[in-house]
Design goal:
Strand order of the largest sheet: 2-3-1-4-5-6
Helix content: 25-40%
Number of helices: 13
Structural class: alpha/beta
Number of strands: 11
CATH superfamily of the largest domain: Response regulator
Number of domains: 2
Shape: globular
CATH topology of the largest domain: Rossmann fold
Distance between the termini: 33 Å
Length: 321
């Protein structure tokens, strides 16, 4: 793929050691000298491809502390979800009520995160640590006292992208195509807030279902008098959209949602041609020019695991850290 001009908002924070921060834990596993972590990951469905990247980030964080904290061994029990709230709740209840976990780690997707945040209120003695689920409402609408997210949310990541699109690139009219669930709503909302405040106009929005395979109707329905397309799609959906953008000869420049411009999409083996070339976007992963001793060490650990920084590996690591 040709050299890309990606502008991402780098959110690099120092997160306190959560496991050592006096979290509430159930007496069952404490008595046994272990801390049980229940791990929800959407290894089934549209995010099955990038989901293992969260595990890589988690494993790096655990390795750094030798899977031990406060003299207690950390035991991880994983359950597969499919990015739907119903399955996430079902698996969470199993981990809490049957496996008696002390901490619930996850989930991956936005709708799952909102559902788990609400569920957490029913289990006040269990600590819930969000991983990559980044829908804004999980933490800013009636927040739970035992549900924690240690990174930005979808709206924050795209907050400045709209201003750049209007003021720097000169886009005045933009159409939206984004997955139909909470994360893209917030991600697109953050973009639209800055774009419209600068003077831009959103001329239309299409919200295809998560897991859509054929985007031909959405591409055909795009208005002709637009300057760019905001594409808020991720995982397999993003790959399919970019492939079909090439196939249908889509020429309008793209503005990427955080998960469209992610390394798990851009590094796909699928033939996406130059569809993402010159795309701008915002997200929590710095571009290749960023360097710090801590981040460089993390990148080296990812390289040993056969991968690199992406939204899933980075947030998996930060959340576990």
């Amino acid at each position: 793929m040709k050299a890309q001009r990606m502008r991402r908002t780098a959110i690099v924070g120092v997160v306190a050691g959560v496991l050592a921060a006096g979290l509430v834990t159930a007496p069952s596993s404490q008595a046994a000298g272990t801390i049980k972590i229940g791990y929800l990951n959407a290894t089934i469905g549209p995010f099955a491809g990038p989901a293992p990247q969260i595990t890589i980030g988690l494993n790096i964080a655990l390795k750094e502390i030798k899977s031990t904290v406060g003299g207690k061994k950390i035991v991880v029990i994983e359950e597969a979800t499919d990015a739907t709230p119903a399955t996430a709740i079902e698996k969470a209840k199993k981990l809490i009520e049957k496996d008696k976990v002390d901490i619930l780690f996850g989930p991956l997707s936005g709708d799952e995160g909102v559902a788990i945040a609400r569920l957490s209120k029913k289990y006040p003695k269990v600590t819930f640590i969000n991983t990559t689920g980044s829908a804004s409402e999980a933490t800013n609408q009636k927040p739970s006292k035992n549900f924690f997210r240690f990174h930005g949310d979808a709206a924050q990541w795209s907050g400045g992208v709209g201003t750049i699109a209007y003021n720097t690139l000169g886009y005045k009219r933009v159409a939206i195509i984004a997955d139909d669930y909470s994360f893209p709503y917030a991600n697109a909302g953050g973009f639209a807030t800055g774009f419209c405040a600068a003077g831009g106009v959103i001329v239309g929005a299409q919200w295809p279902a998560l897991g859509t395979k054929d985007y031909s109707s959405q591409i055909a329905a795009l208005p002709k008098d637009i300057d760019a397309i905001y594409a808020g799609l991720g995982g397999a959906d993003a790959v399919q959209f970019l492939k079909q953008a090439v196939q249908f000869g889509l020429k309008k420049p793209l503005i990427g949602g955080a998960i469209l411009v992610d390394g798990t999409v851009l590094g796909s083996k699928a033939d996406i041609g130059d569809a993402a070339l010159d795309t701008i976007g915002g997200g929590p992963v710095p571009d290749d020019s960023y360097s710090s001793p801590e981040y460089d060490k993390f990148k080296a650990q990812l390289a040993k695991a056969g991968t690199g920084p992406n939204i899933f590996s980075v947030l998996g690591y930060i959340s576990a850290k």
